[in-house]
């Protein structure tokens, strides 16, 4: 029998016989059952039995699982990593956030020098001469105590070796922010405290861990690590009273492989190879850790697991020991592209990337979607929902297994193949990484992992996000910082991602998480007791790590608050991101789309698009996945609504609503790219005005209040992308897609988004005209619904002959072809709109036209 689950074929497996006796550390070949059998080098059939095969599935009564229909986030090992004999240390006491520490200062409880609490005496300092770390788990000769000496890491991992040889620059003075923004001087006490806290963290990591480079390789110590003589498994679970490793390899016998705990709360066990030299745990077999915790006996997926799979008929996932034979491991063939001058990002989701109502795969995305992205002219793909999440409808934002790529879409090696293919096409691959919160699940996530609610997270209400129904990390805890930094490093090192879009950063930076708060731009909103300094310092550390070890990597932060210094380098006192997502733009377009055309204000549009901080780069977008979700509307649906169902065929008469919608859809996107930032983002399908909304498969939801929320009968019909609509020459969607492609290619050639020259010469409320120069291009937008203007004078900087290089009214783009593209426009001297020269144009209603000097005229772009 073959089950189909989440787009993966899952043949049933025979019942596994389980001995009631204890299993020794000897030869385990008869106890191993693999859930991953070789199919071919890039794709494997996943065999999944039920974890109820284990002799006990007792869990604490308080444990909960997020099941289909529960609230979703509305926000916004590879075992070829072999064991390294570096330190594994206990956490220092929790680092105080600014609101706590300043309160204690006022109360006289602490002195200033004690805000940072140093690690306890169990931590040994770095041996500077040997450039190695002494550790409770490492003996004087450098060998791990109680475990076998590890063999060298894979020498073919050249990029990993390069990263290790790079050094992360030491902290700077952190004072340049006051030169960039003099208004910050009024908040020097807070900002200097923040930078001082960051410097103390860097010093402590250097002192006790050997630096960020070593500290961020926690995946080489925790979880499963393979050596020449066996497998070591380590887990930080200080709240557990006892622990044992269970799985298919020992017939789920909790008495077979008892773990030992050191004084720092780290549990450990070493499993020697079988007598014939084969590994004690078979690749693809299920594993869990059983712990006796303050909340009861529980079986959990290891926190550092590299792969997990949901079996047919089950809700909780199973941890999978993932260590394929060398001949089956994917080997990267193509170098990572250099960071482009400007980013044009195609935001995507693998699971919904098929035209069919199914969960798509990494392989399908690689073969079908990546070439499309390249052809459209984007230079980066941002992929959502990579980290494993048990609830599909969370859009990937309720992460359960942070180091595991989602098994719904294929295997880890399938994901590597996807990324390598993107690199072959010259595309950067950015991962939508979630470090802002974690799933509330206790069976297959981090919540209550060791039976306490303060393990990875803040305890009590501070550790719970009431709107997202998720847990909030304690960013001041040593082991939490290790876990998260290592997680970021893992995806860059192992999978060759080219950077990250950090989700929910606003929620991280403030203890109120940005909920029910209207940010007005007053600096008191950013630098006060509501700021979570521990979280901000973590963001500084992770940006330090990424940019130090991977200089070409890109970091984008999702921040709606407008936090000053967000995109200033850490050495200068900033948070360190490369780009901020300019989230206010999409909100402004929704606000305008709810109004009549007569109520649109050109000055309001321009202000929103240009309202960003000096020297802080932004990614502009008219809409992202947020606007496409059920309960919201895409721009196309706002504009054309139900007319999209009946009047999008080119052989049928259009309607005024369709004509208006197609025209404004193009104009909105071009003016957003033209003025909104130094990068641009589009969610897949929106380039051609994808109809309707995204609705994940879900069942009926019964709320505690008694309210019932209807489901959609677990339908995938609205959880896909109808790329066929944009490709169909007989539909009007094709014109919008062609315009978006032309817009991307225009930016690729002229690089106007990153030009230092930007001048807005006209915002005419009567004519509804916006005119600006960016780079060497002149943009003319006529938002008037009926008025077209002959001999309209346009101010410009450079003299010469101008020609049209992009016209939204082109018939190819679904327009009315009212402009002659062979026309030449000659400048005349004389000041106009504060420009030294000008030329005359015809500006039809609801059009956007871009002009360039004839010698700079658009050249063909290879698609």
From TrEMBL:
Compositional bias ranges of the Low complexity kind: 51-80
The protein's Enzyme Commission number: 2.4.1.18
Pfam families associated with the record: Alpha-amylase, Alpha-amylase_C, CBM_48
Domain Glycosyl hydrolase family 13 catalytic: 365-720
Record's keyword terms, sorted: Amyloplast, Glycosyltransferase, Plastid, Transferase
GO MF, one annotated term: 1,4-alpha-glucan branching enzyme activity
Pathway recorded for this protein: Glycan biosynthesis; starch biosynthesis
GO BP of this protein: starch biosynthetic process
Assembly information from the UniProt record: Monomer.
Protein name: 1,4-alpha-glucan branching enzyme
Organism: Davidia involucrata
């Amino acid at each position: 029998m073959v089950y189909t689950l989440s787009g993966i074929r899952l043949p049933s497996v025979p019942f596994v016989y389980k001995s009631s006796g204890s299993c020794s550390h000897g030869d385990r070949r008869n106890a191993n059952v693999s859930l991953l059998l070789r199919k071919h080098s890039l794709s494997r059939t996943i065999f999944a039995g039920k974890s109820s095969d284990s002799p006990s599935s007792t869990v604490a009564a308080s444990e909960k699982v997020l099941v289909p229909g529960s609230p979703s986030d509305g926000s916004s090992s590879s075992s070829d990593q072999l064991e390294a004999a570096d330190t594994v240390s206990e956490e220092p006491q929790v680092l105080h956030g600014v609101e706590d520490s300043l309160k204690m200062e006022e109360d006289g409880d602490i002195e200033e020098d004690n805000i940072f609490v140093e690690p306890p005496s169990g931590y040994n300092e770095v041996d500077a001469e040997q450039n190695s770390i002494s550790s409770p788990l490492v003996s004087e000769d450098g060998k791990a105590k109680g475990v076998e000496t590890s063999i060298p890491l894979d020498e073919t991992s050249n990029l990993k070796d390069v990263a290790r040889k790079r050094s992360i620059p030491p902290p700077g003075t952190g004072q340049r922010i006051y030169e960039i923004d003099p208004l910050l001087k009024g908040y020097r006490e807070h900002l200097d405290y923040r930078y001082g806290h960051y410097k103390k963290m860097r010093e402590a990591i250097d002192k006790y861990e050997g630096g960020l480079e070593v500290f961020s390789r926690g995946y080489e110590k925790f979880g499963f690590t393979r050596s020449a003589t066996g497998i070591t498994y380590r887990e930080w679970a200080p709240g557990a009273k006892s622990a044992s490793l269970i799985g298919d390899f020992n017939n789920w016998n909790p008495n077979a492989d008892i773990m030992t705990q050191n004084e720092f709360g780290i549990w450990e066990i070493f499993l020697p190879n079988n007598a014939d030299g084969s590994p004690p745990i078979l690749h693809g077999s299920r594993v869990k850790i059983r712990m006796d915790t303050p909340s009861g006996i529980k079986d959990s997926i290891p926190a550092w697991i590299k792969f997990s799979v949901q079996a047919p008929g089950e809700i909780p996932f199973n941890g999978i020991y993932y260590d394929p034979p060398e001949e089956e491991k994917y080997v990267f063939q193509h170098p990572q592209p250099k960071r482009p001058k400007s980013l044009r990002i195609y935001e995507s989701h693998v699971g919904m990337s098929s035209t069919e109502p199914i969960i798509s795969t990494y392989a399908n995305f690689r073969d079908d979607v990546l070439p499309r992205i390249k052809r459209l002219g984007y230079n980066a793909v941002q992929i959502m929902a990579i980290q494993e999440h048990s609830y599909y409808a969370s859009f990937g934002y309720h992460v359960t297994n942070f180091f595991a790529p989602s098994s719904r879409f294929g295997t880890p090696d399938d994901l590597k193949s996807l990324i390598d293919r993107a690199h072959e096409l010259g595309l950067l691959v950015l991962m939508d990484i979630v470090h802002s919160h974690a799933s509330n699940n206790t069976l297959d996530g981090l919540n209550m992992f060791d039976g306490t609610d303060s393990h990875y997270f803040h305890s009590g209400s501070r550790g719970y996000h009431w709107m997202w129904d998720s847990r909030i990390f304690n960013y001041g805890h040593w082991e939490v910082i290790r876990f998260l930094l290592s997680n970021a490093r893992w995806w860059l090192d192992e999978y060759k991602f080219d950077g990250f879009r950090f989700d929910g950063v606003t929620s991280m930076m403030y203890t109120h998480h940005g909920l029910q708060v209207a940010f007005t731009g007053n600096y008191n909103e950013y630098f006060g007791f509501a700021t979570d300094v521990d979280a901000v310092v973590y963001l500084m550390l992770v940006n330090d790590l990424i940019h130090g070890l991977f200089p070409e990597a890109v970091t984008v932060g999702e921040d709606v608050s407008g936090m000053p210094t967000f995109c200033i380098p850490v050495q200068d006192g900033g948070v360190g991101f490369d780009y901020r997502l300019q989230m206010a733009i999409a909100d402004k377009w929704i606000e305008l789309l709810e109004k009549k055309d007569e109520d649109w204000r050109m000055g309001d549009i321009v202000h929103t698009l240009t309202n960003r901080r000096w020297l802080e780069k932004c990614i502009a977008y008219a809409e992202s996945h947020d606007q496409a979700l059920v309960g919201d509307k895409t721009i196309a649906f706002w504009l054309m609504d139900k007319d999209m169902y009946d009047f999008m065929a080119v052989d049928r008469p259009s309607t005024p609503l369709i004509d208006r919608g197609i025209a404004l859809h193009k104009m909105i996107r071009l003016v957003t790219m033209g003025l909104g930032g130094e990068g641009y983002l589009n969610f897949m399908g929106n380039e051609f005005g994808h109809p309707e909304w995204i609705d994940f498969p879900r069942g009926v939801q019964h709320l505690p209040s008694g309210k019932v929320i209807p489901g959609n009968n677990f339908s995938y019909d609205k959880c896909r992308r109808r790329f066929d609509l944009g490709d169909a020459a007989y539909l009007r969607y094709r014109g919008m897609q062609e315009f978006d492609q032309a817009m991307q290619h225009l930016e690729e050639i002229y690089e106007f988004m990153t030009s230092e020259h930007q001048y807005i010469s006209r915002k005419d409320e009567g004519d509804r005209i916006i005119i600006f120069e960016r780079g060497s291009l002149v943009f003319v937008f006529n938002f008037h619904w009926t008025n077209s203007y002959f001999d309209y004078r346009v101010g410009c900087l450079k003299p010469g002959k101008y020609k049209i290089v992009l016209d939204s009214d082109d018939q190819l783009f679904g327009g009315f072809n009212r402009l002659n593209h062979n026309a030449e426009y000659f400048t005349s001297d004389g000041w106009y709109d504060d420009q030294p020269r000008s030329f005359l144009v015809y500006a039809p209603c609801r059009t956007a036209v871009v002009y360039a000097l004839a010698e700079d005229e658009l050249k063909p772009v290879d698609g």
